[in-house]
Design brief:
heterodimer; A: about 350 residues; mainly alpha; two-stranded antiparallel sheet; two-stranded antiparallel ribbon; 14 helices; 4 strands; B: about 260 residues; alpha/beta; Rossmann fold; six-stranded mixed sheet; four-stranded antiparallel sheet
């Protein structure tokens, strides 16, 4: 009744191809963007902006990067954090060694370096697939972390290996405050999400899904497999690289290899599994789940009467509950939160009728 | 230039074996332009293997393929697609996570000229080309009466319709040669009639040369202009349907005798 498609016809192929075909989808997106850009920076506390919204946005972006590769093109990867690290260290070194390069340029170029690394480690995908590919992407994870720890040049020969990120200045504006960091992150996330949504709805996106669903048939109808797979690695690597640079520059404020270890790769993988493979909105839902649920759990445990459980055990207990929730959720809805969201919309279309 | 009367496809002495097991031995035949050729034979006769040789999925150990005036020792799938060979598979090989329209559009991927970046940013040649591709895809969808399902996921469609979507995807490539591997397997009589009519229409409307594998001998005799019979990887019959039907070797191997 409220969420109706009735009367919304596309009379041109062009309008049928719009990213958000339905009027109500478009308007709610505009409202959400307006809220995120113009209202949140003013009403959000430093804690919310710094510790919740910024990491949520960066992890959503990382999820988006991996989802293009795994969810759309069907290539499994456990090297996400490695490509994030390449993005972060490349951005840092560009800032350090290329005078006059603006910060935005460094971040984008950092993404380009990550894309190149991703293509390099994606080469085995031309011969192997599935779990074997997963194992070969682990090589990226271990190699990149080793490289940035062992070779001092990358961290400017810093003794501790932990470098403080330079101040965030764009066109003379200092964005080093919480609202500025949040807005910089949000800008990148929105731009890259729109780009990704366009790509998956274009010929390249169809080719990726064709390779994912049945690669022999894709080859027989003339889709160039090698090029299609490597483009998936490139675009995925680019987005992950930008996410890595943002993680270091706008969230942590430091650049260090340990921020990009294997558990980060797993975290990104969980985001897309929980959010939904082959879905753009799923990355945001999955990242929200991963970022917000531990906070909610620790808040909830604060209400427990003191002395019932040892404080040291409490943290472990939270992890157990978190794990159980993930397992329970995936049994209930293996296709992820994006599927639930879609079902909700299907319901809303016909409400108050059942079908 | 090739003369019109020359066959579109000529197989010369094709032999294929898998680790010493002979699948096809020394098979030669011609496929005339604009005709429907049927490949028949008992299970394991090498029919599907032969289609796989024609479009380059398998590499034959001996023999050569002449397609549209070009001589090749072996094809590869991409080259075959570029040269105008499209096919369907015995077990449906659709892209299950995509809609009917998207499946048909993938069939047209070789007709693209704009780069992926133009398409991603919707600039340059891409928007006009997207319109043109959609229009051609819609023509194929209309031709095969698939309009009600264009936005449906193919995995949600019944089997008979999936077979038709696969034909649509192959047809969208505007092929010179269409290879159909058991397009009517598992269908009831009505669906078979419908599919036969679609294949005959494709052949007549677009002048597409068709090679098909089919087990229903009634369908084969009605639909095809030319029948090639295989048994144990050898060719045992080759000619117009009526002639093949009277061939004693074919009757013994495949059609069966009345006792």
């Amino acid at each position: 009744m409220f969420y109706t498609e009735a009367g919304q016809f596309s009379s041109h192929y062009r309008t049928d191809r719009r990213l958000f075909r339905l009027r109500q989808d478009r308007y709610s997106l505009y409202a959400l963007l307006l809220f995120a850009f113009a209202v949140v920076p003013f009403i959000g506390s430093d804690y919310w902006l710094n510790a919740i919204l910024t990491p949520f946005l960066v992890l959503s972006l990382a999820g988006l990067g991996l989802n293009l590769l795994t969810g759309y093109a069907g290539q499994l990867s456990l090297g996400s954090a490695a490509f994030m690290a390449v993005g972060a260290f490349a951005t840092y070194n560009l800032e350090l060694r290329v005078p006059g390069l603006p910060l935005l340029g460094s971040i984008v170029l950092g993404g380009v370096f990550a894309a190149a690394a991703s293509v390099l480690f994606g080469l085995p995908s031309l011969r192997i697939k599935g779990f074997y590919l997963l194992v070969s992407t682990l090589a990226a994870q271990f190699f990149v972390q080793w490289l940035f720890t062992k070779v001092g040049w990358f961290s400017n020969d810093n003794a501790s290996g932990v470098i403080t990120a330079p101040p965030l200045v764009i066109a003379g504006h200092d964005l080093s405050n919480p609202a500025g960091r949040y807005l910089l992150t949000l800008g990148f996330v929105v731009a890259l999400t729109l780009l990704a949504r366009n790509v998956v709805k274009s010929e390249l996106g169809r080719n990726w899904m064709a390779v994912r669903d049945m690669d022999t048939a894709a080859a027989v109808i003339g889709i160039p497999l090698a090029r299609t797979k490597l483009l998936a690695f490139a675009l995925s690597g680019f987005i992950l690289g930008v996410a890595g640079a943002l993680w270091a520059f706008t969230y942590l404020g430091t650049v260090e290899p340990h921020g990009f270890d294997l558990s980060r790769s797993f975290q990104v993988l969980f985001i897309i599994i929980i959010g939904g493979l082959g879905s753009i909105a799923g990355n945001f839902l999955g990242a929200a789940f991963i970022v917000l649920l531990p906070i909610a759990l620790s808040l909830a445990s604060g209400f427990m009467p003191a002395g019932v459980i040892d404080a040291g055990q409490l943290e472990n207990l939270q992890k157990i509950v978190f794990g159980l929730l993930i397992i329970g959720f995936l049994i209930k809805e293996p296709e992820g939160l994006a599927r639930l969201w879609q079902q909700l919309r299907e319901r809303a279309r016909v409400w108050p009728l059942r079908y | 230039m090739t003369e019109i009367s020359s066959p579109l496809l000529r197989l010369e002495g094709i032999s294929l074996s898998f680790k010493g097991v002979k699948a096809i031995s020394d098979i030669s035949f011609d496929v005339a332009r604009g005709r429907i050729t049927a490949l028949i034979g008992p299970n394991g006769a090498g029919k599907s293997s032969l289609l796989n040789v024609i479009n380059g999925v398998y590499r034959p150990q001996a023999g050569r393929i002449v397609f549209d005036g070009e001589v090749r020792q072996r094809m590869n799938p991409h080259r075959a697609a570029v040269r105008g060979i499209a096919r369907t598979f015995q077990n449906i090989a659709l892209f299950k996570g995509m809609s009917v329209l998207d499946n048909v559009l993938t069939g047209r991927n070789l007709k693209r000229r704009s780069s992926w970046l133009e398409q991603a940013l919707r600039i340059g040649r891409a928007p006009a080309e997207d319109d043109a591709q959609r229009r051609r895809a819609e023509e194929v969808i209309a031709f095969l009466h698939l309009q009600p399902w264009r936005h449906t996921l193919v995995s949600k469609l019944p089997y008979g319709l999936q077979k038709r979507v696969e034909l649509a995807r192959a047809l969208a490539a505007e092929p010179k040669l269409l290879l159909l591997d058991e397009p009517m397997a598992g269908m009831n009589a009505e669906e078979k009639r419908e599919m036969s009519r679609f294949i005959a229409d494709v052949n007549r409307e677009f002048d597409t040369t068709v090679v098909l594998i089919e087990h229903d001998i009634g369908v084969v005799m009605n639909l095809s202009d030319h029948v090639v019979v295989l048994d144990y990887g050898r060719k045992i019959g080759d000619g117009p349907p009526d002639e093949v039907r009277r061939n004693p070797e074919v009757i013994a191997a495949y059609l069966g005798t009345r006792h």
